[in-house]
């Protein structure tokens, strides 16, 4: 049996793995630096995403690694609890994901309002862009999302009078320009991913012009691995850390499973098994936690690159993990040449792509309530923080659903002679019961009344009982009792019945 007959797609998967590896390197390093941790921790998460999560069943073509979407949350966690405690947070979040996978709640993440998810990504995108503009200029960013945005005009003024900051900004802006323009070049050139080309050009420009720009600090792969110690585990007694852990678990899971749904639309291969994918993500994050690395999610940028490069099986993502491991082990010194503003430029571009510009206008035209949830979620994330912003969005979404679920319309047709016809449509719940009874009790008691309930999608017990009581008591003596039509069958409810 030849190698090709055993692995019929080896060539396609091998070539796809190279493309995914080239896309992953600048993103892994960029996300780590933006999260306030050593660059190598981003590579470790990418390696685990390939070699551990990549081998597991779930979604065969989506690729996992450190995500721009979690940058804000990780930075907040590292600022509050320290890099040493990051491993514990990621470890427990991974175990929570495993529990959710075993309890088969993976599919339930598909029920989360799309507006909340897009609002979450929009808010994250805004905070990433604002924060990374400071990094591109070599300036310290304010801690809060609002502070970052409000401080931008002052930061630009400071940068204009500082040669070092201007050189740094030029490298960041140049990186963004290369990524954007790269897509307009011939297909053969685009074989090299735009982000990688931009970082390489920025590195060459910095070295050739001897620019005074900060570069990535390198500590070596083994030097950054920091398994959680007893002191870090002791932090679990701090109630504040549990909000962060739950946020990591829920947001990483939501991002991964929404990414899986998006990747399924890109190919016609096997569909995602959501509960198994949750187990794969949980296993990956548990391992990342034990190594003290960044949390992982499935990443749409890498996953779409994998599909577009012609990957057919999970072999491509496993191989991409092998290439990341070889790179991190053999060429760590190459990282030390990368200018930090170039990585900031990559993340500004990634943050921009998280903002759903195309969806907002049509959403506003068709579903104003959903558009409002999206905007409020995004603003709350910028104004408060990631976790509470998402909770605000979810609460709004639930409130909107409850309001719509109790939507009810009563139409009365009175031709002056004959029976008065009343049509109820929508959802009759106890929330609308006072309004229903007020309207029905206002109907004339000395005329026959026909109440048609066939337009109701839902009639709860409280409403059913109240309608029966009203029908039994409404008609004056000597008047025909109220006729109630439920579906196709008229049901005469006699007085006193």
Notable traits:
disordered C terminus, 63% helix, five-stranded mixed beta sheet, elongated, Transcription Regulator spoIIAA, 2 domains, two-stranded antiparallel sheet, 23 helices, alpha/beta, 497 residues
User: What is the N-to-C succession of helices and strands?
Assistant: HHHEHHHHHHHHHHHEHHHHHHHEEHEHEE
Please give the alpha-carbon distance between the first and last residues: 81 Å
- Low confidence ranges: 488-497
Secondary structure class reads alpha/beta
Strand content: 5-15%
Number of helices: 23
Overall, the morphology is elongated
Percent range of helical residues: 55-70%
Rg over CA atoms, rounded to whole Å, is: 29 Å
The order of strands across the largest sheet is 3-4-5-6-7
* Largest sheet entry: 5 strands, mixed
Transmembrane segments: 14-34, 41-61, 81-103, 115-135, 165-182, 194-214, 240-263, 322-352, 372-399
Subcellular location: Membrane
Membrane topology: Multi-pass membrane protein
Organism: Streptomyces jeddahensis
